[in-house]
């Protein structure tokens, strides 16, 4: 049996996946790095809302950021996140 602390971390992880805008951002980031402006225009969501959701995703270690000149580029934090997102979407596709 897993510890309460570990399961609490898993619950926090899934809680942060439980928002449609955050999932749309993560889905976009599966295809590569993007800056806030590009994410905003591709998803038709305000830059303010994108920035807010990216902060949440960074704080929960789902995305990472790197500076490129004056731009900040965001990407999926690691392969585990990619795998979880791909399995989740495949799971749902099978039921649609």
TrEMBL record:
GO molecular function: DNA binding; DNA-binding transcription factor activity
Short name of any one Pfam family annotated for the protein: HTH_5
Entries under SMART domains matching the protein: HTH_ARSR (SM00418)
InterPro entries: ArsR-like_HTH, ArsR_HTH, HTH_ArsR_DNA-bd_dom, Metal_resp_trans_reg, WH-like_DNA-bd_sf, WH_DNA-bd_sf
Record domain HTH arsR-type: where: 2-96
Keyword Ribonucleoprotein: no
Keywords: Cadmium resistance, DNA-binding, Transcription, Transcription regulation
Coiled-coil region list: none
Any GO BP: response to cadmium ion
Protein name per UniProt: Helix-turn-helix transcriptional regulator
Organism annotation: Candidatus Coprosoma intestinipullorum
């Amino acid at each position: 049996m897993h510890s309460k602390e570990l399961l609490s971390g898993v619950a926090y992880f899934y809680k942060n996946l439980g928002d449609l805008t955050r999932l749309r951002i993560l889905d976009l980031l599966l295809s590569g790095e993007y800056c806030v402006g590009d994410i905003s225009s591709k998803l038709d969501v305000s830059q303010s809302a994108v920035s807010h959701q990216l902060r949440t995703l960074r704080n929960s270690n789902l995305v990472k950021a790197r500076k490129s000149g004056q731009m900040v580029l965001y990407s999926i934090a690691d392969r585990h996140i990619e795998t979880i997102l791909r399995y989740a979407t495949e799971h749902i596709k099978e039921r649609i």
